[in-house]
């Protein structure tokens, strides 16, 4: 089955008693057994639920993996991966990651004895250099939040294989419509399902996809033991949103390119980060590994720095000044005070995440309207 078919059909069967083409929401905590010791495939929703199984089947299929496990948020899915390790274990991580991931690693998991090295994974030699005897995993985010840096997934895959390390990729910005990290040797693909996969700013959820039965059963054990699972209704909403994923990603990418070209040519823009632009330092890698588009995430700085960025963000009318990304609505964000406020200023500065950086999640409205909005705000 092709990707466009899988997003609509994988995991979904008409409801057997009525033929309802949209499966019902299995909003039930528990399931009645046939008899003692013989259930019907489900017993208690923390462990598994039909609405969640349908979503997990669909996510595994579209990512090209065998198994998926869903969690109550993207962060809960990141946390589930990190529960595979023990004190003293070391993880090499992309330096430009979502602020919440950095906070979980640096503020919480470090206190439980895990060790982290944050390196610029766009340069594979830095990843290689950071590997120690105690290293257990390489954690890559690509494209990154918020500097939209791209990592060569095949190059990191070779390093992970050579050093026998677990290889996990946060592919939230790309989605399986544009990039499938398992094809590049990743063991685990992580998504904030909250973003493009769900696509409509209605659900917080996360997912892990893998080809390893062993990892899948560990992730399932963590789901039922920790209990950070999405509700049946949320799973149902995500399945609804997923049906248009390939269409939405085409439009997000088309609009993203148009907005990036507009901003790059604007005299008030100092620099811009979008992998579809030839000026992007990893444009060639992005072109090779992202199929059919570059998504809708753009970051840029204005010549007037923070003051000019604030003026722009306060002047947009169509774009919503809001946290989050990947929804149908265009959203504008100030990473330094919003998504990455938890990253200490000196760490932010060291990575090039300045106070003046503005991030746009380009939606699926008409591109002329999005550009007209930015134009009027930049004219202020
Ligand atoms: C790249 C990335 N990974 C993980 C997360 C965390 O996901 P959630 O907000 O669903 O917990 C986010 C949230 O913005 C993100 O942008």
Model description:
It is a single chain. Helix content is 38%, strand content 15%. The chain is an alpha/beta fold. It has a seven-stranded mixed sheet, sandwiched between helices. α6 links the parallel β4 (135-141) and β5 (166-170). α1 runs antiparallel to α2 (50-63) and α2 runs parallel beside α9. The mean pLDDT is 97.
Helix proportion range: 25-40%
Write down the overall geometry: globular
Q: pLDDT below 50 for ≥5 consecutive residues: which ranges? A: none
The biggest beta sheet is recorded as: 7 strands, mixed
Strand content: 15-25%
Radius of gyration, in angstroms, nearest whole number? 21 Å
Q: What is the CATH top level name of the largest domain?
A: Alpha Beta
CATH architecture of the largest domain: 3-Layer(aba) Sandwich
| Distance between the amino and carboxyl termini | 50 Å
What is the tally of beta strands? 12
Domain tally: 2
What is the tally of helical segments?
14
The arrangement of helices and strands along the chain is HHEHEHEHEHEHEEHHHEHEHEEHEH
CATH-wise, what's the superfamily of the largest domain? Type I PLP-dependent aspartate aminotransferase-like (Major domain)
Q: Biggest sheet: strands side by side, in what order?
A: 1-7-6-5-4-2-3
Average pLDDT works out at 97
Would you give the CATH topology of the largest domain? Answer: Aspartate Aminotransferase, domain 2
């Amino acid at each position: 089955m092709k990707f466009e078919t899988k997003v609509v059909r994988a995991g979904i069967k008409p409801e057997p008693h009525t033929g309802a083409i949209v499966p019902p929401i299995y909003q039930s905590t528990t399931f009645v057994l046939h008899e003692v010791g013989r259930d019907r495939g489900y017993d208690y929703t923390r462990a598994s639920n039909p609405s969640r199984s349908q979503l997990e089947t669909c996510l595994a299929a579209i990512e090209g993996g065998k198994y998926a496990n869903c969690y109550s948020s993207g962060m809960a899915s990141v946390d589930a991966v990190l529960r595979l390790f023990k004190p003293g274990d070391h993880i090499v991580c992309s330096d430009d990651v979502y602020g919440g991931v950095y906070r979980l690693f640096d503020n919480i998991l470090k206190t439980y004895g895990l060790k982290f090295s944050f390196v610029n994974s766009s340069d594979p030699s830095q990843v290689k250099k950071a590997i120690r005897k105690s290293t257990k995993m390489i954690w890559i985010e690509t494209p990154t939040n918020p500097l939209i840096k791209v990592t060569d997934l095949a190059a990191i895959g070779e390093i992970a294989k050579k050093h026998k390390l677990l290889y996990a990729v946060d592919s939230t910005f790309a989605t399986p419509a544009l990039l499938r990290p398992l094809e590049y040797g990743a063991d685990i693909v992580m998504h904030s399902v909250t973003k493009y996969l769900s696509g409509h700013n209605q659900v917080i959820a996360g997912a892990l996809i893998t080809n390893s039965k062993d990892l899948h059963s560990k992730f399932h054990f963590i789901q039922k033991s920790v209990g950070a699972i999405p509700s049946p209704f949320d799973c149902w909403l995500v399945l609804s949103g997923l049906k248009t994923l390939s269409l939405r990603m085409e439009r997000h990418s088309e609009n993203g390119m148009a907005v990036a070209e507009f901003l790059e040519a604007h005299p008030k823009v100092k620099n811009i980060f979008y992998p579809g632009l030839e000026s992007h330092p990893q444009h060639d890698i992005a072109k090779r590994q992202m199929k059919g588009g570059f998504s809708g995430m753009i970051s840029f700085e204005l010549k007037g720095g923070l003051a000019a960025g604030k003026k722009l963000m306060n002047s947009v009318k169509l774009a919503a000044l809001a946290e989050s990304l990947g929804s149908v609505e265009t959203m504008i964000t100030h990473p330094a005070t919003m998504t990455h406020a938890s990253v200490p200023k000196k760490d932010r500065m060291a990575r090039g995440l300045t106070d003046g950086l503005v991030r746009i999640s380009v939606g699926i409205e008409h591109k002329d309207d999005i550009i007209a909005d930015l134009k009027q705000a930049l004219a202020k």
